[in-house]
Amino acid sequence: MTTHQEKFPDDFRPLARPIGPAPRSERLFLPVLLTAATLLIACGCKKAPSAAPPPPVVEVLDITTTNAPASTEFIGQLDSPQNVEVRARVEAFVDKILFTEGTEIKAGDPLFKLDDKPYQERLAAAKGMLAEAKAALNKYEKDVARLTPLAQKRAIPQQDLDNAIASVDVGKASVVSAEARVESVTLDLGYCDVRSPTSGLIGAKQVSMGDLVGKGQPTLLATLSTLDPIWFYCNVGEVVYLRAESEARRTGKRVVELPISLLLADGSVHPETGKFVFIDRAVDAKTGTLRVRAEFPNPQKVLRPGMFARIKVDLGTRPNSILVPERAVAELQGKTFVWVIGPDNKASQRAVKVGEGLGGSVLIQEGLKPGDRIVVEGLQKVREGSTVKALTAVELTQLAQSAQQAETKSSKE
């Protein structure tokens, strides 16, 4: 029987062995090897437990009370105490324009010259009729003077004297009518010389040279506005008004006596302080607001009618108030809350009622008390019931300085 001998490459020849039962030494070593591998695998699966991460560092603020300034703001619009519309009172053509647009005008300054030739002709005719009426009256009076002694001597009928006396009365009426006609035409002639009725800043002209004005209606020629002082109008809700009245009474003042600051659209504050000069008698039933007017000096004429602005009403100070930075207050689904850190350094969410803003802080009306600690930096690190490392701003600064000093020392070494 021919035996088949398997051939291996020279590199693998030491590993080759004849087919058949394994030697006894190999049968004894295999269980030991498997046992050791099992132990190694089991040891490798059991890793040492990792250390828990440190609690996040957050900046906290200890709540204290203070005397906060009390104020309220309203949005409104500026307007002039006098917006005077200069209109044509007679029908005529514009002959001259005698002012520069956008300049200060004094009362009595000429503005427009209308063509007055037709009115001069009417005046001359009216004066002629007046002269005729006076001449007729003079004749009637002489007739009465001549007929009176004759009637007394019964040389003429009494009716002739009565007719002469009646003619005198008619003549006097004619004179009065002619004088009124002269005055009327003189007045119309004066309207052709259009002058400023008041002092103020004049706007753009509304007509040009040669335009026919005053035909059928008084044509608008230009508008003047007085600028010093200037008025501020706004609508105040009845709840806000009642709150302001309450705060004013607390300080022993009236609303009309409260100082007012004017905040302009560019964020600047008008240098002059204003005051309330008018509060409407009734609340508008449709809007639930009161019409209010405040007055501000405007010597530099910077403020103009139509500007939008805000007023800030100083209500004095509010004692025992709690102010917190705006960044410490979060809002979710229309509710505001802060994160409060308890004595065990665990965080909890607390709802608060927020009042008006004061600079970078807000007034807390309800929800906090003195002694509470709230998170002002690191709100995104906080979860309900989680433990944090709470440090004040001073402690965080000291910690940063210590770390910087240690880094500097390490770099020198």
Protein model, in words:
With 413 residues, the protein is an alpha+beta fold. The chain folds into four domains: 59-66 and 320-395, conserved putative lor/sdh protein from methanococcus maripaludis s2 fold, CATH 2.40.420.20; 69-80 and 227-318, Elongation Factor Tu (Ef-tu), domain 3; 85-111 and 196-225, OB fold (Dihydrolipoamide Acetyltransferase, E2P) (Beta Barrel); 116-191, Helix Hairpins (Orthogonal Bundle). 30% of the residues lie in helices and 31% in strands. The protein has five helices and 22 strands. The strands form five sheets. Strands 2, 11, 12, 13, 14, 15, 19 and 20 form an eight-stranded antiparallel beta sheet that branches. Strands 3-10-8-5 form a four-stranded antiparallel beta sheet, with no helix packed on it. Mean pLDDT is 82; it is low at 1-34 and 39-44.
